[in-house]
Amino acid sequence: GLKTELARLPALLLQSPTAQAASHGRFRRLIGELVGAEDPEVAAAARRQAELDGPTRPTWAAQVGRDSYGLWADADLPGGRLRFRFVPPARVTVGSPDDESGRRPDELQVTLILPRAFWIAEVETSQALYAAAQGRDPSRFPSREPAIQPVERVSWNDARACCEALNARITGLGARLPLEAEWELAARAGSAAPWTMPAGLTADAEGVDKIAWTTDNASRQPRPSRARLPNPLGLYDMHGNVAEWVADTYGPWPTATITVDAAAVGGTQRVLRGGSWGDDWMKTRSATRIPVRPELASAYAGFRIALDVDWGAASPDGSAVVARATAGSADRSKTFSLGGWRMKLEPEDGK
Questions:
Q1: What is the residue-averaged pLDDT of the chain?
Q2: At what angle do helices 40-53 and 17-33 cross, to 10 degrees?
Q3: How many CB atoms lie within 10 A of CB 62?
Q4: I want to staple 291 with a disulfide (CB 3.0 to 4.6 A). Which of 50, 237, 269, 301 is the partner?
């Protein structure tokens, strides 16, 4: 019934202009037909819609917008402008099923709750950005176009230091490495498959070739960003090119559903995700985890920047969504034409 339809509204991570408008339209209709805005399920759906809508313009943003992939914001960082994609709070099933080809013992499949939204860079950190922030480019493969070439040969310690340098320059940026669960949420973009494939592609060597740089197609070096197809969140090279450092220490996934709002600590190794240009295509699966010492700098390893979300005064409690929906459903009058006359039917008071 109506409650079932209401429960389906917040299912998508992706909120393109079309999807956002459609979701708000359905919400307006449902709030008019259900008991009212005070219904607990209406309030929960409104809160989720507010989370999907995203925050107001961040203080660090030079420009913001919404496209077919969802909400984005551009930041003017040292070395050039970088686009970030908004990822709302969500549940993510990490790891892999027992029968997934290439599965390793550290890929226990479990659902985790990520209560915090975040921004994540559309591309891997470039040589230009890193050199501007840190004063040098350590890459084994320096490019004539450093603005579009991912930096590599950076350790986990280097990646974290670069984020801290950016925060020192730009007030309120909140740059950091993504949590491992955040990384997998962004890589999967709602998919449970080994790779997040665009429509029409199959998860085989030929299909992965269209989304990832691997040992099969990279000609023995990392390749420029945006040269393969993005995933449904608009993120490039989540599979292949350079493997990406995440914030956590390496360890087993939890054995039961928990809320994850901070990086795992306690281990001596860190984690690289996504596989690289030096890996076979089977090693670029969403679930693949690579434990590495934090001081190791490799030509196969780079990183992607995540940012904290500052909701400001407009916290996602759903009240604004309910107000819009209530206003939109208030006028329930109907008009139609009959015999050349335009007629209007209005509900009686209280009906």
A1: 89
A2: 170
A3: 13
A4: 269
Backbone angles phi, psi at 111, to 5 degrees: -95, 130
What local confidence, expressed as pLDDT, does residue 10 receive? 66
Phi first, then psi, for residue 301 (nearest 5°) are -120, 135
Distances (CA, A) of 196 to 51, 100, 174, 208, 312: 23, 14, 28, 9, 33
Residues 6+ positions from 132 with CB-CB distance below 8 Å:
77, 78, 79
Q: How many Å apart are CA 29 and CA 7, to the nearest integer? A: 14
The alpha carbon dihedral of 20, 178, 189, 120 has a sign of: positive
Express each pLDDT in 25-48 by its tens digit: 888 888 777 656 677 788 888 888
For 136-192, write each residue's pLDDT tens digit. 999 999 999 999 999 999 999 999 999 999 999 999 999 999 999 999 999 999 999
Which of 282, 186, 192 is closest to 237 using CA atoms? 186
Residue 132: closest CA among 77, 181, 94:
77
Q: Which of 18-27, 31-40, 202-211 has the lowest average pLDDT?
A: 31-40
Round to whole Å and give the CA distance between 282 and 275.
9
The phi and psi torsions of 319 (rounded to 5 degrees) equal -65, -40
In residues, how long is the chain? 351
Helix (H, G, I), strand (E, B) or coil at 296: coil
Q: What are phi and psi of 249, to 5 degrees?
A: -80, 155
**Alpha-carbon gap, residue 31 to 212, rounded angstroms:** 44
How high is the pLDDT of residue 106?
97
- Beta-carbon-side half-sphere exposure of residue 265 (alpha carbons within 13 Å): 3
Residue 146: the pLDDT is 98
> Residue 339: pLDDT band by 50, 70, 90 thresholds?
very low
The angle, 0 to 180 degrees and rounded to 10, between the axes of the packed helices 40-53 and 319-330 is: 110
Backbone dihedral angles phi then psi of residue 326, each to the nearest 5 degrees: -65, -45
Please name which of 99, 120, 96 lies closest in space to residue 107, comparing C-alpha atoms.
Answer: 96
Q: 188, 183, 163, 186: which is closest to 244 by C-alpha? A: 183
Q: What is the pTM of this model?
A: 0.90
